[in-house]
Design goal:
elongated; 3-stranded antiparallel β-sheet; Glucose Permease (Domain IIA); 8-stranded antiparallel β-sheet; single chain; alpha+beta
Amino acid sequence: MAVKWENALIAPEGLKISFIFLVATFISFFGGYHVISGAIFLLFIFNLFFFRNPKRKPPEGPYIVAPADGEVILIKEVYEDKFFKDRVNLISIFMSLFDVHINRAPYDGKILDIKHYDGRFFSANLDNAFEENERNFVFIETPEGKKILYSQVAGLIARRIVSEIKVGEYIKKGSIVGLICYGSRVDIFLPKEISLRVQLKDKTKAGETIIGEISNER
């Protein structure tokens, strides 16, 4: 299921904030505060850049794609105790202020569960951010019967997580599933039988960069 603004150039969440900056620009300008007005206008332009929605074409085949733009900052085996209750591979992708903020589905599948956990707002590039920070988990079952879990993680600046999907929906690989305002990270948890296709410090594009491959073996 696609979100209503799938083809929009700018995410609606960004347009709301941009409108506030634009109004503040005019108020400052006509109030005689021209320098302040110019600074706010730059924030207006930069905010539109933050929430841009570029087109993405996911690869065909049994390939799991990155759910976020950014840099791979962590790959390790962990015990995931909320959904898998087993040891899985964790891949963490850090989004800077200059990356696209929109998150995309890593693979086709039915959404089995969504859980939001309140937490703290440590810098998202810290290893323990996936355990301590506020986060939103989405648990998916693929057509092959595999389970995939991803988590939108809040950060030091990012204080708003947006999820555009619901339990029971069927999502397509590369489709928009939400966003995180102003940076942060997305973690994806994969069963150990899924082959990883990514390395530390790799740059990713949501919906396009291959990070894993599902084996044909059942």
